[in-house]
Amino acid sequence: MRRVPVAELEPGMKLAQDIRRSDGMLLAGQGTELSPGVIGMVRRMVEIEAILVEGASFASEEELQAWRREELRKLVHRFSKVAGDPFMDRLRKLEAKRIMDTQ
Questions:
Q1: Each residue of 11-23: pLDDT tens digit?
Q2: Looking at the DSSP assignment, which residues form a beta bridge with residue 26?
């Protein structure tokens, strides 16, 4: 699944989760294929900035691997000042696992 900004929604995309108003009212259920009408409704809702739709987050395996390399590089840099701290090392490893598990 991938997070798509409301401005980039296209007909035919399928919802990966329900869309609800702030009061909890269901507007469109998981699995709904987006139509121009549903997209218009979502765009009119000020509190919704992006929604989750079905599909891969990356266009290719190469794009995914490049993203992982860059995220791991940034992670090493962020944790460089606390190297050797057991708690921070554990936190860094957990974040590295999340990056590697991202599809």
A1: 999 999 999 888 8
A2: 20
Indicate if the alpha-carbon torsion angle 86, 91, 95, 98 is positive or negative. positive
Range of the domain at 91: 61-101
Write out the DSSP string of 27-78: EE-TTPBP-HHHHHHHHH-TT--EEEESS-SSSSHHHHHHHHHHHHHHHHHH
In this structure, the answer to whether residues 46 and 18 fall within a common structural domain is yes
Looking at residue 97, what is its pLDDT? 93
Q: What is the pTM of this model?
A: 0.56
Amino acid, single-letter form, for residue 20: R
46 & 65 share domain? no
